[in-house]
Structure formats: C-alpha cells, structure tokens
Amino acid sequence: MAKRLLDYGFHSPTIYFPLIVEEAIMIEPTETESPQTLDAFVDAMIAIAREAETDPEIVRTAPHETPVTRLDEVTAARRPVLRWRP
Question: How many domains does the chain have?
C-alpha cells in the first residue's frame, strides 16, 4: 500500500518499526498540510483499499507510474552500486 501511494502522487509513508501493531504504517502529516491535501490523501487510501479488494496484484506490484519501478532488493544488497558514473 505504501508503494502504491507513489502512483497517486504521495510520498510513501514509513512502514512502522518495531512492529508493535502488525502491518501498521506511520503517517505523520504536518500542520502545514492543507485540508485539501489531507482529503486527497484519504481519497487515495480509500481507492487503494478498493484496489486491494478487487485487484490485489496492482497493489502488490506497485509502483507503476514512477520513473523507477520496484527495485530488486536482493541484487541491490549483494551488488551495491556505490559510485555514480556518467
């Protein structure tokens, strides 16, 4: 769900550690967020919940609309690229 929020234009929230509440996420809007932004965020969360019920694969494989999609975390951990080369 956190990565699917990227497709809706929101920064994905931190997945909460330690896992005090199973599968919890930490969402911390600041006082600078407008009511319109908060409403749009809630609408995105409701849409993602509907997607999870009707087509869970679209949520599992997110993000889809970002320049870089899901990273191969195993390869990234085993062969990290630590230097940028033009």
Answer: 1
